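Record filed below.
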Amino acid sequence: MVKVASNDILGILRKFDLAGDDNVPRHVEQLKITNPSATNTLASFRFNKQQFYVLYDDTAEDSEGYVLSQIQIEKQDLIGNLIENPNGDHLMTYGLPYKGKDVYLYAVTSNKKRLDILLAERFPETSRSTWQKHIKAGHVSVNGAVQTSPKQDVTEADQITTSIPDATDFSHHELPIVFMDDNVIVVNKPVGVLTHSKGALNDEFTVADFFRRYTTVGLETNRPGIVHRLDRDTSGIIIGARNPETAHLLQKQFADRKTKKTYIAVIDGHLKETSAKIDLPIGRNPSAPSTFRVDAKGKQATTEYTILAVNDTQSLVELRPFTGRTHQLRVHMAYLNTPIHGDRVYGKEADRLYLHAFKLEITIPQGDRRVFEAPLPPEFTDAFAEGLV
C-alpha cells in the first residue's frame, strides 16, 4: 500500500498542470485512501470543488479501461474522464511517473443539475425564481413523481413534466373608478386588496389585475399601470398610468415628492397637541426585518397631523406624509404611543387597519393639477358623532 498525503496529491496535480504554486496542501480536501486490488492504491479527494481520483498502479500499462475498472471498484456510477499526461514526449498517454510509481488522474464530471436550473435553461422565458415557486407548488414532476424541491438533482435523461395551472380569470372583478381619462385611472382601493401580487404565482385579485384592462404599461410584469402602492390593509386613492409617458411623469412626481397625500386614521389614545409636525427618521428593525422603527440612523421621515375628532379612547386624525418611507404613518403614530387602530404589527389587531388614503394631489398630463378624493368609510366616523374638534 502506497502512503499518500495531501502534499503528494498536490505534487501530482501540479504535474498535470491543474495546480499552481499558490495552491497549498489544505486545498486538497476529503482525502481518502483505498486499495482496489493488491497491486494498487486509490486516492479520492476534492480540489477546487471538483472530485478526483488518483490511481497508483504499475501494472495498468496505460489502459484506460483497466484504470476505470479499478476506480469503479470504489465507485460504480462515476461519470468523468482520465486526464491525459501533459508531457507530450512521454511514452504513456495517461500514466505519469511520480516518485517511482505510475499514477493516473481521473476527474469526475456530472451531468446532474438542479431541477430549477435545468427548467430555467429549457424555458428561458420563465425565470429561475418563478420555476422555484412552481416546483414548491407541486407543478413539476420528475419520472412521474411530483417533486417539490428546487434543489433536486436531475439529468437530461430524466422525464420532467410540468402542469402549470391556467391563470385565474379576474375579468369579472371590479374596483370603484374615481376618475379615468386617456392617461390615468384612479380607483378607491378597498381594504384587503393587494396593489400588486408579490410573486409570479398569485391567485387573488389585485389593483394591478384591474389596471391591466386599461393600460399599455408593464403588461409583461405583475405590476401593469402601477406607479405607487398602498398596503393591503390600507384603503383609498391609488392612481395608475395608462401609457408609458404618463407612467414616467407620475413616477417622477412621487420620487421628487411633488405629490400631496392626505390620509385619515383612527388612532388609539390621544395626542397632546391639536396639530404638529413629526420629524423622526425611520429605519428597518434588525430584530424583526420586515418591520420598521424610529431610528436616529434611519432615513428622514416627516409627517404632519391634525386632530379631527376625539372620544374617550380614540382620536380621528388627518395625516400628511412629506416623505414616503415604508410604514411611515404607522411607525410615527406608534412611537407617540397612539398606534393606528387595528395595526396588528405596531399596535393591536381589530376588524381592519383604520388607515385610509383620503386625498391625492398630483399633476396629470396636459399640466392639470388635480385632487382625487375617496370618501371616508363610515366605520371611521361612527365612533365620533359627538366628538368633533
User: Anything to note?
Assistant: The helical segments are 6-15, 64-74, 115-122, 128-136, 207-211, 244-255, 328-335, 378-381. The domain at 113-162 is CATH 3.10.290.10 (Structural Genomics Hypothetical 15.5 Kd Protein In mrcA-pckA Intergenic Region; Chain A). The first helix runs from residue 6 to 15. The longest strand covers residues 355-364.
